[in-house]
């Protein structure tokens, strides 16, 4: 039994949809999907149905692309929290676990020295605090725009009913802290799962260096220590890598856009083994 992970499927691409359809079934394994499945709700629904049919359990956290409100959806399209709640409802209809569900215990073989391991799906967003120290919050958009690195979230990711995305981020952080304090078993190790990186020093995107403000929050920098993480699984950056910090593995598990992965390997070749 394995715990596998992937993110950033970007199913708006026909190539990526074909690769997902060709993904072999692995009913004895669990799969983490760390966000950016698709912008369209119908594609997200299709992916949840397919993956839940092929894996023993699927655990999903949202990325920014799922949260986008697209122009074709019309004036009554769901925005912000309402859109997130629709995504959660779709996932749950297929038995997919979300950040709103109880944290599952890992039932497979445990790492050496670990007596209990809990998987913690998170939805934390970002608050622009990954910007350089000499760039004021009020100037961050103009600073990023100097190199054409402004994230499309500024037009498509609505924070309703919150005033700003940082306000929504703060609410999500507070809720996650409360849940972890209340629900995480004493002494249990964790697999933390979030779409956005938890540490600024692991954001290495030289092709878009001023994209960092949309990549997380400095408030989670010590969460791998605070919550005894065996591993931290994230996506968003499209820079597949493994880092070791304070004994915890940080796994960036993005697939990415069609030009960013080898189609000859198939999507199965990009499933990261976490356990």
Structure write-up:
- The chain has 275 residues and is an alpha/beta fold.
- It has a single domain (3-273), classed as Purple Acid Phosphatase, chain A, domain 2 (4-Layer Sandwich).
- The chain is built from eight helices and nine strands.
- The strands form two sheets. The protein has a five-stranded mixed β-sheet. A four-stranded mixed β-sheet has the order 3-2-1-9.
- The protein is globular and about 50 Å long.
- The model has no long low-confidence stretch (mean pLDDT 96).
Name of the CATH superfamily:
Metallo-dependent phosphatases
Strand sequence of the main sheet, in spatial order?
4-5-6-8-7
Structural class call reads: alpha/beta
Q: Helix and strand succession?
A: EHEHEHHEHHHEHEEEE
Weakly predicted, low-confidence segments:
none
Terminus-to-terminus distance: 8 Å
What would you report as the Rg, rounded to the nearest angstrom? 18 Å
Taken together, the total number of domains comes to: 1
The CATH topology name reads Purple Acid Phosphatase, chain A, domain 2
Tell me about the largest β-sheet.
5 strands, mixed
Give me the count of strands. Answer: 9
What is the percentage of strand-forming residues?
Answer: 15-25%
Supply the CATH class: Alpha Beta
What is the overall shape?
A: globular
Give the rounded overall mean pLDDT. 96
The share of residues in helices is 25-40%
């Amino acid at each position: 039994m394995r715990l596998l992970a992937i993110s950033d499927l970007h199913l708006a691409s026909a190539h990526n949809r074909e690769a997902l359809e060709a993904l072999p079934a692995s009913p004895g394994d669990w799969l983490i999907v760390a966000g950016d499945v698709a912008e369209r709700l119908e594609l997200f629904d299709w992916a949840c149905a397919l993956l839940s049919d092929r894996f023993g359990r699927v655990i999903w956290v949202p990325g920014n692309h799922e949260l986008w409100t697209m122009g074709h959806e019309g004036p009554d399209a769901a925005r912000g929290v309402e859109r997130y709640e629709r995504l959660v409802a779709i996932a749950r209809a297929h038995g997919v676990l979300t950040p709103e569900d109880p944290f599952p215990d890992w039932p497979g073989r445990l790492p050496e020295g670990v007596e209990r391991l809990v998987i913690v799906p998170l939805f934390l967003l970002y608050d622009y605090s990954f910007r350089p120290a000499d760039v004021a919050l009020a100037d961050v958009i103009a600073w990023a725009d100097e190199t054409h690195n402004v994230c499309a979230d500024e037009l498509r990711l609505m924070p309703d009913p919150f005033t700003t995305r940082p306000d929504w981020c703060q609410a999500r952080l507070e809720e996650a802290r409360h849940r972890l304090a209340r629900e995480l078993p004493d002494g249990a190790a964790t697999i933390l799962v979030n779409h956005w990186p938890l540490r600024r020093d692991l954001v290495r995107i030289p092709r878009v260096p001023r994209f960092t403000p949309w990549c997380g929050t400095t408030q989670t920098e010590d969460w791998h220590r605070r919550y005894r993480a065996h591993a931290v699984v994230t996506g968003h950056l499209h820079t597949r890598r493994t880092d070791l910090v304070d004994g915890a593995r940080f796994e960036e598990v993005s697939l990415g856009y069609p030009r960013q992965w080898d189609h000859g390997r198939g999507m199965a070749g990009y499933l990261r083994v976490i356990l």
